[in-house]
Design brief:
The complex is a heterodimer of chains A (644) and B (164). With 644 residues, chain A is of the alpha+beta class. Chain A has 25 helices and 16 strands. In chain A, the strands form four sheets. Chain A has a six-stranded mixed sheet. A six-stranded mixed sheet of chain A has the order 8-7-12-9-10-11. In chain A, strands 13-14 form a two-stranded antiparallel sheet. In chain A, a hairpin with a 4-residue loop joins strand 1 and strand 2. In chain A, helix 2 crosses helix 20, helix 7 runs antiparallel to helix 21 and helix 20 crosses helix 22. The longest helix of chain A has 21 residues. The two termini of chain A are 38 Å apart. Chain B is α+β, with helices and mostly antiparallel strands. Chain B is built from five helices and eight strands; from the N terminus they run E-H-E-E-H-E-E-H-E-E-H-E-H. In chain B, the strands form four sheets. A two-stranded antiparallel ribbon of chain B has the order 1-8. A two-stranded antiparallel ribbon of chain B has the order 2-3. Classes of the chains: A alpha+beta (644), B alpha+beta (164). Chains A and B meet through helix 7 and strand 13 of A and helix 1 of B.
C-alpha cells in the first residue's frame, strides 16, 4: 500500500506481549489515519463504560498518510483513548519530529493495551519493538526523560514522547510531550499513559513509506514551495513567524473578546504586557522554532533570570497557554506567565486546562466557596501569580488543594458543591479554550458539539472566514455571503459552515496535518491536500470523498460518545455565556439560550441526527458506510433496528 | 577564498529541513533526505544549522582520495569523477563537517555542486537570510555591520544618557 507503512504495532503491557498486524487498505481509505484510524480501532475494541484509567482503556498513537511527506504541516500524529478528563472520546494531536520518526520506524500506528506492573518505556526501531525498564525515569521531568533515553539508546536521533510527573500522578489533564516543545496537550492522554505505567515511547527509523507517483509528488511539493502557498493564509505576510499565535492576544483585546477573569470580563487592562509585540521586544525571547519542513515557524523559546528563572527547555509560549495563564486569571506579569507555562510543560500537563482550573479556584476563593483554610494559607486572589505558580506545583504533585483541582474543573465543582458549577468553564468536562464565544457564534456551536468537549480545534468558524473562502469545499460568496460569515451571525448558514468545517477538520486530524498551514487558518487550499493524498496513495481521491470521509469520522466519534451516554443535554455551553459581555466593542452581546437551541436544532437536522436526542440516525450512519456502528448502537438500545 | 559558498546563519535557521528536501528533490527527484547534499542539525533548544560543502581552501577530501577521483574546479567546487570513485569513503572521513556523503543508490561520493552557481536550497529557504550564497568577504562584511550596529546603539544610549 502506498503512502503508509501498512503495519500497526500492538503492545500489551499486562502480558508483556508485542505483536504486529497489517493496516488493511480498505480501512486506511475509509478512515485515513490519525483520528479516523484511532476512532475505528477504539470504537471496535473499547467496551462502553470502562474506567479511563483502568487497564481496559487503550491508547492509540496514529500517524496519517501525509505524516512524513516533506511539506509544511506534515508532521502530525494523533493520540487517542477514552479520556480521563471527560469520560468520552479523548484525542490530541502533536506535531514535531516524533510523528515522522514513528512512521520511519515502520508503523502507521501503535495500540497500547493493559497495564505494566512497574514503570516501562516502549522502544521501537526499524520494525522491532521492545518493552524496557523505566524505573529510573519515573518521577523525572519530561525533557530529562528524553535526554536519558537518548543516552541509554546511544542515539541522539531517537525521538521520545513521554509524560512528566502529572501523568504519573494521574492528573486528569496530564499531557504527553513529544520531543522538544510539542504536546498532545488536551483530554488527559498523559494520565492514560501514567495509568499504564508507560513513561515514554521512543522511536527511531531509517525507512519510509513508498508513494504511488513519487516523482509527481516531488514536483507537486516543489511547485507548492515555489508558490509559497503555505504562507498565503490570513495570518500572513507578517504572520505566525513574526508574532506566533500569540498575535491573537492583542487581536482579541482589540475586538473586545479577550477571555479575562474566568469569562466575566472581555478586556484586560494590562494586556500590553503580554502581547506578541511585548514578548518580541522583551529580553526573554531567545529564538523561534519550527516543525520539520514547516515554513511557518510559529514556535517561541524564552529564557529569563528574574523575577523567575525560566528554563528554555520548557518556556515555550503560544496564545492559548499565555491567555489561560495570564488574562484569564488576571495575571499581568509576562515572566510569571512564562514560568507557569514552563512548569506545566516540565510536569507534563495541559496549560489550557491548568489556567482555566486556576481561574475556577480563584473565583471560588473570591466567593468564599474555598477558604484560606482549604488552600493551606495560599491567597488565591485574582492575579496573584506567586500563588498560581505554587498551585501548579501542587496540582502536578496532587498536594493540598491541588489534589482536588487535578481532577478537572467539572469534578472539582461537583465535590465543592455550593453552586461552584457555575464557575467551571467546561463543556463535557473539558476546560474552555481561550475564545469568548459570545462574540463568535459559530464557534460557540462548534465548542458545544465538539466530540472532545470544549475544543477550538474541531470546528472553527467566524473571524477566520470573514475574509477566507474555499469554493472547493463549498464555501464561496454565493452560498455564504459576507453577512452570513459575520462573527455574530447565528443563522442556519453559520450552522452549515460549522458542519463543513467539522468534517474538514476531522480529515485534517486524520491525515494528520497542522491546521496552521491549511485553509482556513493557513495558506494551503484543500484542493492541494486532495492532490497530495491522491498522488501519494494512487487512489482516485476526490474532494467529495475527502468531505464524506470527514463526516464519517465525525459521526464515528459521536457514536463513541453516544455509547458513553452523551446526548443533546450535554451539547451545551456554560451558563455564563448567556450573560452579556460587560465591556468593549461588543458590550451587551450575549449567547441567549434560545439562539443556541435553535442553532442546535439546525445542526442536528443537517448532521442527520435525532433532534431530541442528538444521536446519529441509522439512515445517516448507513449512508456513511457505518452500518456496523448503527448495529452496535441498536444492540445497546440506543437507536432503532434496521427495517426488514 | 573569493568563491561564493552556502552559508547558514545560526541566528536565523530554525532547523525546518526544507533545504534537505529541496536538494534531494531537485538533484534526485527523491523525498529522502539522505539524497541531500546539504544537511541540517538541530540542537534543541539552543539552535540549528545547515551544512553544505564549505569549499575549503585546502580540501582534505581531495587530498586523501586514493583513486584521484576528487578535484577542486576553478570555482572551488569539489567535483567527483564517478567513473574513478569506488565509494571507499576516505573523503567522507576526511571532511570534518560531514559535508560529503555516499550517494544512497549510486554509491559514489556525493557533495554539493552549488547547482551551477544558483543553489536551489538558498532560493527556497523559507526563513529570510537563514541560508545565503555569499563570499567570505560578504559574510564578514555582514558580521562587521551587525557588530558595529550594536556598538553604535550602545554608544547612542551612553551619549543620550550623558546629555540629559
Amino acid at each position: 500500500m502506498f503512502g503508509y507503512r501498512g503495519k500497526i504495532l500492538r503492545v500489551n503491557l499486562t502480558k508483556e506481549k508485542i505483536a504486529e498486524e497489517p493496516l488493511e487498505e480498505s480501512v486506511a481509505r475509509k478512515f485515513i489515519g490519525g483520528r479516523g484510524l484511532g476512532a475505528y480501532i477504539l470504537f471496535n475494541e473499547l467496551q462502553p463504560g470502562i474506567d479511563p484509567i483502568g487497564s481496559k482503556n487503550k491508547l492509540v498513537v496514529a500517524t496519517g498518510v501525509v505524516t512524513g511527506i516533506p511539506f509544511p504541516g506534515n508532521s502530525g500524529l494523533n493520540v487517542m483513548a477514552k479520556s480521563p478528563l471527560t469520560g468520552i472520546w479523548g484525542e490530541s494531536t502533536a506535531k514535531g519530529f516524533f510523528g515522522p520518526e514513528l512512521k520511519s520506524s515502520g508503523y502507521d500506528a501503535i495500540v497500547i493495551e493493559g497495564k505494566a506492573k512497574a514503570p516501562v518505556y516502549l522502544w521501537i526501531q526499524d520494525g522491532e519493538a521492545e518493552i524496557r525498564d523505566a524505573s529510573r525515569l519515573w518521577g523525572r521531568p519530561t525533557r530529562e526523560v528524553q535526554r536519558v533515553i537518548k543516552a541509554e539508546l546511544k542515539d541522539d536521533r531517537v525521538q521520545v514522547g513521554c509524560i512528566g510527573i502529572a501523568g504519573e500522578n494521574l492528573v486528569r489533564f496530564a499531557n504527553i510531550m513529544f520531543g522538544f516543545n510539542h504536546f498532545a496537550g488536551r483530554t488527559g492522554m498523559g494520565a492514560v499513559m501514567g495509568s499504564k505505567k508507560l513513561k515514554a515511547i521512543a522511536a527511531r527509523g531509517t525507512g519510509r513509506a513508498r508513494y504511488a507517483r513519487e516523482e509527481k509528488l516531488v514536483d507537486l511539493l516543489v511547485d507548492r514551495l515555489n508558490s509559497k502557498e503555505a504562507l498565503s493564509g490570513p495570518y500572513f505576510p507578517d504572520g505566525l513567524f513574526k508574532y506566533g499565535s500569540l498575535a491573537d492576544l492583542g487581536y482579541w483585546q482589540e475586538t473586545g473578546r479577550l477571555p479575562t477573569m474566568n469569562f466575566r470580563k472581555s478586556l484586560f487592562p494590562r494586556y500590553e504586557n503580554l502581547t506578541a509585540e511585548a514578548l518580541a521586544a522583551s529580553p526573554y525571547l531567545i529564538r523561534h522554532n519550527t516543525c520539520p519542513h514547516c515554513t511557518v515557524g510559529c514556535n517561541r523559546i524564552t529564557k529569563a533570570n528574574t523575577p523567575y528563572e525560566l528554563d528554555p527547555e520548557y518556556a515555550t509560549p503560544e496564545y492559548e497557554s499565555t491567555a489561560a495563564l495570564s488574562s484569564f486569571c488576571m495575571n499581568d506579569n509576562l515572566v510569571a506567565t512564562l514560568k507557569a507555562i514552563e512548569l506545566c510543560n516540565k510536569y507534563g500537563m495541559d496549560t489550557m486546562s491548568t489556567g482555566v482550573i486556576i481561574a475556577f479556584a480563584m473565583e471560588c476563593y473570591e466567593k468564599e466557596k474555598i477558604t484560606r483554610k482549604e488552600t493551606d494559607g495560599l491567597d488565591l486572589t485574582w492575579g496573584n501569580h506567586d500563588v498560581m505558580i505554587q498551585l501548579i506545583e501542587q496540582i502536578a504533585r496532587r498536594q493540598g488543594l491541588g489534589n482536588l483541582l487535578a481532577d478537572g474543573s467539572r469534578k472539582a465543582a461537583e465535590k465543592l458543591g455550593g453552586g461552584t458549577e457555575e464557575f467551571a468553564m467546561h463543556v463535557k468536562g473539558m476546560e474552555f479554550p481561550m475564545h469568548d464565544v459570545r462574540g463568535m457564534k459559530g464557534h460557540g456551536l462548534g465548542i458545544a458539539t465538539s466530540n472532545r468537549g470544549a475544543c477550538h480545534l474541531q470546528v472553527e468558524t467566524d473571524d477566520m472566514f470573514e475574509g477566507q473562502l474555499d469554493p472547493d469545499v463549498g464555501i464561496d460568496e454565493t452560498t455564504f455571503p459576507k453577512e452570513h460569515r459575520d462573527r455574530l451571525y447565528a443563522g442556519p448558514e453559520k450552522v452549515r459552515l460549522a458542519k463543513i468545517i467539522g468534517d474538514l477538520f476531522a480529515v485534517f486530524d486524520s491525515l494528520v496535518i497542522c491546521k496552521w498551514t491549511v485553509y482556513p487558518c493557513g495558506g494551503y487550499k484543500t484542493r492541494t491536500l486532495v492532490d497530495i493524498v491522491a498522488t501519494a496513495t494512487g487512489w482516485d481521491f476526490t474532494m467529495d470523498e475527502l468531505m464524506k470521509t470527514g463526516e464519517r469520522i465525525f459521526n464515528l466519534c459521536r457514536a463513541f460518545n453516544v455509547r458513553e451516554g452523551i446526548t443533546r443535554k450535554d451539547d451545551k455551553l456554560p451558563k455564563r455565556f448567556t450573560e452579556p459581555l460587560p465591556e468593549g466593542p461588543y458590550k451587551g452581546e450575549a449567547f441567549p439560550k434560545n439562539v443556541f437551541e435553535r442553532m442546535l436544532d439546525d445542526f442536528y437536522r443537517l448532521r442527520g441526527w435525532n433532534r431530541k436526542t442528538g444521536i446519529p440516525t441509522r439512515e445517516k450512519l448507513e449512508k456513511l458506510e457505518l452500518s456496523y456502528v448503527a448495529d452496535n448502537l441498536t444492540d445497546l438500545g440506543l437507536i432503532l433496528p434496521a427495517k426488514k | 577564498m573569493s568563491e561564493k559558498y552556502i552559508v547558514c546563519d545560526p541566528d536565523k535557521c530554525l532547523g525546518c529541513g526544507i533545504c534537505e528536501f529541496v536538494c534531494s528533490a531537485v538533484k534526485d527527484k527523491s523525498l529522502d533526505a539522505s539524497f541531500s547534499r546539504i544537511r541540517q542539525v538541530n540542537f534543541e533548544p539552543t539552535g540549528s544549522l545547515a551544512i553544505a560543502c564549505l569549499l575549503c581552501e585546502k580540501p582534505p577530501c581531495v587530498g586523501v582520495c586514493p583513486m584521484d577521483a576528487l578535484l577542486k574546479d576553478e570555482k572551488g567546487v569539489i567535483r567527483v569523477d564517478e567513473y574513478k570513485c569506488n565509494g571507499c569513503g576516505w573523503c567522507i572521513n576526511a571532511c570534518k563537517f560531514g559535508a560529503i556523503t555516499l550517494h544512497p543508490t549510486r554509491k559514489v561520493a556525493m557533495t554539493c555542486d552549488l547547482c551551477d552557481g544558483d543553489p536551489e536550497c538558498v532560493k527556497l529557504c523559507p526563513f529570510e537570510d537563514a541560508l545565503a550564497f555569499s563570499t567570505i568577504e560578504e559574510v564578514t562584511h555582514g558580521l562587521r555591520k551587525r557588530a558595529v550596529d550594536k556598538i553604535l546603539h550602545e554608544l547612542l544610549k551612553v551619549r543620550t544618557a550623558g546629555s540629559s
